[in-house]
C-alpha cells in the first residue's frame, strides 16, 4: 500500500512540470531551429537552413490557444543541373498564425496560415554565389510575398518547447512557368515565458 501512495505522489508531482495554462494566459516563446526546405519542382532537392524568432500565444482556454509570430527563415532548394551543383537560398520573414489544440498535458496539435515576405535571394553554382534577382530571366524573379499552411505538433516540458511543423506552400515562388511552391519541414526548440 505504501508503494501505491509513493507512486501516486510521484505521478502527481510531475503534473506541475507540464504547462497548465488557463483562459487569458499569455506566453512568449523565443525559438531557434532547423529548416529542411525544397521547392515543389521535379528536380528540386532538400537543403538545410536556419530558422529563429519568437511567437506570442493567447490561451483562450486550458485546451486551446491562438499564436502569432515573427520568424526569420532560411529556405530554398538545391539541384543538379547538367554537371553543376546549384543551390537557391531564399530568406523570408514568416508570420505564422496558428490555432493550438492541447490534446494532453504539454502536447499540442497546430494548424494555421503563414504569410511571408521575401528578404533576399542568392543562387550558388559550384560554390560561386550571386544575387539571384539581378541575373534572373524576366518573370523568374522571386515574388516578394509568399503564403503557406503550417501544420505541426509541439511538446512542452518545464517551459522548454520542441516544435515540429511542415509548411505547405500555396503560392509559387515566381511567375516562371516551371516555378514551384515552398516546401519546408521545420523543427525548433524554444522556451516559454508567461507574461
TrEMBL record:
Cited InterPro entries: Beta-barrel_OMP_2, OMP/PagP_B-barrel
Keyword check for DNA-binding: no
Listed name of the protein: PorT family protein
Keywords: Signal
Pfam families according to UniProt: OMP_b-brl_2 (PF13568)
Protein species of origin: Segatella copri
Domain of life: Bacteria
Annotated signal sequence range: 1-19
Outer membrane protein beta-barrel domain location: 18-173
